[in-house]
Amino acid sequence: MRLRTLRARLTAYYLVFFSLLFVLFSIFLYGQLSRSLVARMDETISAEADTAAGLFPDEFQEMKGDADRAAREVVSEMKLHGDRIAIREGGRVLASTDPGAPPAGARRTSRTAMAGVRAYQIEIWSPLDSVEAELAVVRRLIFIGLPLLLAVAGVGGYLLARRTLHPLGSMAEQAHRITGSTLDARIAVEQTAEEVAVLATSFNELLSRLDQSFDSMRRFVADASHELRTPISVIRGEADVALSQERGSAEYRESLGIVLDESRRLSRLVDDLLNLARADAGHVRLQTHDFYLNELVAECCRSVQGLANTKRLILECRAGGDLQFTGDEQLLRRAVINLLDNAIRYTPAGGKVTATLEAADEGVALRVTDTGVGIAAGDAGRVFERFYRAGEARSRQDGGFGLGLAIVKWIAESHHGAVECASSVGAGSCFTVRLPR
Ligand code: ADP
Fold it and tell me: Residue of the nearest CA to atom 19 in ligand 1?
């Protein structure tokens, strides 16, 4: 039978332990008692035998050498309290309290008494009846006491277990009341035993972590919906206007161009969101292989060259010589493009963007530096947060969603690396991705 509740289990353990203890204690006590009763009996018959052995020669003398009369006299004079005596000369019984031989199992002792020139044997024995009777009383007490004691121990154990486990029950009740919308509630820690308080504190810490991640999830969903709303309303508005009356093909073309631009933005945003959600869920497995990181940086520079030209920026690529690296090429390409894209976006015409790759024994440092608008000190620490835009109006107008750097950070961390930002307003920014080799 499996006991389902902890209370029942504790009571059962308590009962088993108590019964074992009681049985062992009873066995020990019973053994001690029976040994001491038998020892006391041995002492008594020994003392009686000594008395009889001392008495017999005197009676023998008094009876003028009549051994039979002397023996009868001794037997009648002895106060034996239920013990038995026999005086023999060789095999012949001179006098005895019992006609037969001592029963098997009786305690017995004997002495030799010299009277005249002969030796006489004095034997005293005691049947074990009195010891047996006393032990029977003790046995009865044990057999009545055991169930009584177990009943008391069972009730006591149950009450004790209930009292000990009460704080757990109240904790479970409090935890039961906490729902997704009341994650800020906490379990009361005061006035509980230390072990339960540790459990309650750990549970509260878990709640705090859950609360934080729920909070950031809620924020993420709210931000994402907010970001999705803008391109969707532009698309809808443009379609509404275009369809409100008959228009020329140039106007339709212009509207469709806007719809296409916004759709592209929308699909970029959905891609980014999907990537971050997959990364959060741990569903992205890196497709690692060996490749030349310098070539990857050079390719990225080439792919944004057009953009830099459009903005009349100087783009310099210092990728250096062959640098073999093991990692996810696609993801790292994405990170470099994001950094270059930002640098170009936030650098005014005439400025300069530089991509540098440096190798050391312990790892590589990939740096994208620009002479652009820079980031205020207060914003620099937060630009890696999702949907965070430094200089809100400026960034939104420049078309970013505030997810690019969050993705760069995730890519760096998934390669066991890190990304950092150094910037000063008006002077430019420097983003460094450090990756271990
Ligand atoms: P966005 O898509 O808005 O550019 P990012 O995550 O890439 O989002 O960047 C977050 C914010 O950091 C941007 O809104 C921008 O204000 C700031 N930022 C990023 N890179 C640069 C840079 N090279 N120079 C100045 N500001 C930058």
Answer: 342
Q: For residue 199, how far is the Cα from the chain centroid?
A: 10
pLDDT tens-digit readout, 91-143: 899 999 887 777 777 899 999 999 888 999 999 999 888 889 999 999 999 99
Sequence-distant (6+) residues with CB within 8 A of 27 are none
CB 276 within 8 A of CB 217: no
Ligand 1 centre distance from Cα of residue 430 (Å): 12
Domain-wise residue ranges, the chain: 6-131, 194-280, 285-436
Number of CB atoms found within 10 A of residue 336's CB: 24
Class of domain 6-131: alpha beta
Using an 8 Å Cβ cutoff, are 213 and 184 in contact? no
202 backbone dihedrals φ, ψ, rounded to 5°: -65, -40
Query: Rounded to an integer, what distance in angstroms lies between the CA atom of residue 423 and that of residue 308?
Result: 20
pLDDT of residue 205: 94
Q: Do 347 and 353 contact (CB within 8 A), yes or no?
A: yes
State both tokens at 385: 């947060």
Candidate of 383, 421, 425 to mutate for ligand 1, largest count of ligand atoms within 8 Å of Cβ: 383
Q: Which residues contact 190 (CB under 8 A, 6 or more apart)?
A: none
Instruction: Report whether residue 404 contacts ligand 1, using a CB cutoff of 6 Å.
Output: yes
- Whether the pTM exceeds 0.70: the reply is no
Instruction: Work out whether strand 352-359 and strand 324-328 pair parallel, antiparallel, or are unpaired.
Output: unpaired
Helical (H) or strand (E) element with 292: strand 288-292
What CATH topology corresponds to 285-436?
Heat Shock Protein 90 (3.30.565)
Instruction: Provide CATH code, domain 194-280.
Output: 1.10.287.130
Q: Cβ–Cβ contacts within 10 Å for residue 199, how many?
A: 17
